[in-house]
Amino acid sequence: MMLYQLVKKDFLLVKKYVLIMIGLCIILPPFLISSIPEYAGIMGFVLISIYSVFMLLQYVILKETQFPKASALLCALPYSRKDFVLSKYVFCIIIYLACCMVFSFETLVFPQLGSLGVTMPVMLFLVISLILSVYLPVHYKLGCEKTKIIFAIVIMLFSFVFPQILKIVSSLNLSFIDLQNTAILLSGAILLSIIILMVSVTISMKIYQKADL
After folding, report:
1. I need a surface site. Which of 79, 137, 182, 207 has the fewest CB within 10 A?
2. Torsion angle, CA of 181/39/114/180, rounded to 10 degrees?
3. How crowded is residue 118: how many other Cβ atoms within 10 Å of its Cβ?
4. Cα(142)–Cα(90) distance, rounded to whole angstroms?
């Protein structure tokens, strides 16, 4: 119940920005169909997911930084520091699941985007878990100001580098993957994502426990 209230608090902090991100999620994929139709599906899904998760998380962090006493007050109440940290991870996972739902609906409206399937969401969840597992511990260790600079650099680099990665991957011969058991690979990716997030949560909790509020 405590965790639910903290996650709800995060969504209330960014409720105005949520509408903006929903608008971006709806507009971006159709725009990509007209500009890069061959990669519109995967790029649309990846970009809206990455931007939505990390930009909304950054907005929450900025709001909390503007009112530092609020965090101290929450931790002085029945809300533990562990719950406070865990809520950020849950917040991000909920946003990612919402992006999956939005994009699934868009694939019905715009068949050119292709089918979402299972593989792409699972693999992207692994990527987001990796980024999140580094981003949040660094934030709790270094603070908002230094972290937002790193965040801006990563987002800009990702926007330029990802299309190039797609071109390289499309030129590779990946037929050997078909020989593997897809269910095992996807299960392994989900398990690895969970392990990465659990390790990151533990590290973030230890850092935040020692933080001077």
Report:
1. 182
2. -10
3. 11
4. 21
Q: Residue 187's Cα: distance from chain center in Å?
A: 20
Given a contact cutoff of 8 angstroms between Cβ atoms, the answer to whether 26 and 107 are in contact is no
Give the global pTM: 0.84
Instruction: Write down the number of H helices and E strands in the chain.
Output: 8, 0
- Distance separating alpha carbons of residues 133 and 123, to the nearest angstrom: 15
Q: For residue 99, what are its two tokens?
A: 């992006």
One-letter identity of residue 185:
L
